[in-house]
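Progress note, sequence design subtask.
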């Protein structure tokens, strides 16, 4: 695991590299701890799930199953996990196991049991509500289960929560325009991620690109600034007429 602001991905010890955020995370996103995600607005829920799936692939060893637990109502509101799309996004669907749960309580139980199960590398739990069911007591149970299993634990709330939580970090995620390829199509997905709670240090905000081929996060490229106008506003009418 590279510490600091490295742009690599992978697992060394107990951290996964997110690239630029690694500095404030003291080496990367910790395994064996609970982390919470939420979209900035509901329309960004797909981006939040995409970010969670990308993070779940950062273990270069590629061992273990990735379990996605979706509450039924969460899937109805924001869409189901799509296997072909996951493959194109860099997520190996041969390692992907999707669980559907009727209620938030069922989803949280399934998430806790999966975190304690051998052979599970990452668990993503998606809830439709901001988290009345995932209260402080429940998130403590999830945190203890993550410690026992040693894998990645991500709780995705479709609406940001305000109540206390046992999560080590909390993230707000939004989609941003990705870079275009040479043919005018989209090249890499990009996310604006804001760290709003961090037990290890300060918070911050970054724009990250997801390299689905190498399965790693890269800092966003700087956007070109438009050239300054050649004419002042008062001269614009004259310039327009030649």
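Output:
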């Amino acid at each position: 695991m590279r510490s600091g602001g490295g742009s690599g991905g992978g697992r060394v010890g107990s951290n996964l590299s997110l690239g630029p955020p690694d500095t404030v995370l003291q080496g990367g996103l910790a395994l064996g701890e609970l982390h919470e995600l939420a979209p900035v607005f509901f329309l960004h829920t797909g981006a939040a799930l995409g970010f969670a799936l990308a993070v779940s692939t950062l273990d270069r060893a590629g061992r273990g199953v990735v379990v996605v637990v979706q509450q039924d109502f969460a899937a109805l509101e924001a869409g189901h996990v799509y296997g072909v799309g996951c493959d194109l996004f860099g997520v190996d669907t041969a390692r992907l196991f999707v669980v559907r749960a009727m209620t938030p309580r069922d989803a949280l139980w399934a998430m806790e049991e999966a975190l304690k199960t051998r052979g599970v590398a990452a668990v993503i739990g998606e809830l439709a509500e901001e988290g009345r069911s995932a209260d402080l007591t429940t998130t403590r149970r999830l945190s203890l289960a993550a410690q026992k299993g040693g894998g990645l634990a991500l709780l995705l709330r479709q609406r940001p929560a305000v109540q206390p939580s046992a999560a080590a970090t909390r993230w707000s995620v939004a989609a941003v325009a990705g870079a275009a390829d040479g043919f005018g199509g989209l090249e890499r997905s990009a996310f604006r991620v804001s760290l709003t709670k961090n037990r290890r240090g300060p918070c911050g905000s970054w724009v990250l690109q997801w390299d689905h081929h190498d399965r790693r996060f890269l800092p966003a490229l700087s956007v070109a600034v438009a050239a300054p106008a050649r004419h002042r506003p008062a001269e614009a009418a004259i310039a327009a007429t030649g």
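The helical segments are 45-56, 72-78, 83-89, 104-115, 136-149, 233-240. Work on this subtask will continue into the next period as scheduled.
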